[in-house]
Amino acid sequence: MAAQTVTNEPRRLSNAYQNWYRFSRNPTAVIGAGIVILAILAAILAPWITPYPEHVGAVVNFRARHLPPSAEYWFGTDNVGRDIFTRVIFGLRISLLLALVVLGIAIPVGTTLGLLAGYFGGWVEIVIMRLTDIALAIPPLVMALAVAAVLSPDLINSMLAIAALWWTWHTRLIYSITRQLRAQEFVEAAETLGASKFHILFREILPNCVSALAVKTSLDAGFVILVGASLSFLGLGIQPPTPDLGTMVASGSAFLPDYWWESVLPGMAILVVALGFNLLGDGLRDLFDVQEVR
Amino acid sequence: MEFLSFLFRRVLWSLLVLVGLSIVIFAIARVVPGDPARMALGPTATAEQVAALQEKLGLNKPIVEQYGMFISGLSRGDLGRSLLTERPVNDDIRETFAATFELVLATITLAFVFGVPLGVAAARWKDKWPDTLVRVLAIFSAVTPSFFAALLLQILAGYVLHILPTTGRLPHNMEFVANITGLLTVDSLIAGRLDVFGQAVRHLLLPATALALATMGQIARITRSSMIDVSSQDYIEASRAFGVPEPIRVFKYMLRPSFVPPLTILGLEFASLIGNAFVVELVFSWPGMAAYGIRTILQKDLNAVMGVVMVSGVFFVLVNLLIDVLVGFVDPRVRIRGSR
Predict the structure, then answer these.
(1) Is the ipTM of this complex over 0.95?
(2) CA A278, CA A149: separation in Å to the nearest integer?
């Protein structure tokens, strides 16, 4: 599906209130935004809101190991007696950081390449779009595995490996929008007035991509978190004892089915955060009336 | 003729992607800082041992020549030797790939068998409960990490209900060598071993379901929206006006053109499907490429890792080629527009 996007006519700032009103009438978007904001706040405030912040490190408390969820330990305790709820909240930090870094690299790179390919066409388009085809042929997870093999399995390498492939999706999206916009009057007008290429790309065309990018970014944040969790599940993410949701699911799964909470609850946390970004993305899509991003 | 030229362009293009892929993989393995020979031998090896291994692997030759060696090996289907198993990487991958291939095949089958009817139902009863159900299902299938789905299925079907086996491809006490296609389900049928076939299917069900969920949700969603698009077309109105019975209208006139978007989605999703297969295989102790890949990665076995990445990439490119050809076959407009 060559992400076909049709954006509405650009909205003016005076529509902000109207947008907010429409957004607040959309239950999925509000739930999604709520989850995302809650997750971000929890991650930032983790040391102050968690009951046992000292359990982040290599604490051992064998008397309290494998305790089921209770009022004292909301999500139970793990095999060395650490509070799982505390570690889940701290684990959110890694997941969100991953999404931030990967998208922080992928969006500027992907957007710029997409604009160039869509606007200039010719060999620029051929080179860039063929590069995206190649990058698409490598599963991000497998790429991260390969990079982990060559360098060392840690969070930074995994993030770079994912980012090195993720830009393709943004390139394809922006490319298809730019191609539609290239022939429109406002672009031609800017060209006739002698605007620089830079101005046309970033001041004329880019603002028209913003709503599609917002939708894509929100949906992507969820998917990047899922890929990152899979990596750390395989042992290629941040190394223990730093809490990481994927790692917790992996280590907890050794104690299935008796101590199910040790893997199921961190897994639920990943699911809920990804769900939040997804619902938010869907809501934004309805709001901006962007069709079929991704 | 027109179809042949489409096919020719598409195959040529796939070859180009593969060459690009080989350069990327080679670059990761060689240009990245660090000495593969030193990494393979570990910090305790002497300088002579490192030099000997460099000589053996051709690491002391110029980089272009090394790439030449790599690509000429590739074109002969030779991926070099694994430092871990000390066998040709080809043999290792051939053995493990069959298991991965069988899993992926079962996954795609499940995703289509359940995804398409769900999408049709959602479109037929738009804004009614089947539609809501499919929407919820599609969202949850997209946001559940595959390894988590795998674990949940394992708990539910394996530990709570005790209805399905949770590890491996066959029970430990069952002897069967799949040496024709490597696919247990196919080979057991050829050999007439129905008991093996039954067990193979039972072992496949859980991992394939875990892996299929994400794709199934996407397929249901995209089938729904393309069915709805098609239903507003004039020829559907006309068939309604002519009194064509509803089943014929839905299944013959609406479903056939609606098959193209799910196919294309499958092509795009296929890379993440392979990636997820790695994780799911690990959870279910499926003896596929993932276990091999992860073992070799931890051992810094570069030839094997490059082989695994290359085979994953080739698999993706071939499946997409197949899908494009299929789509071009079903939908003549694609052929004329050209590939992509």
Answers:
(1) no
(2) 31
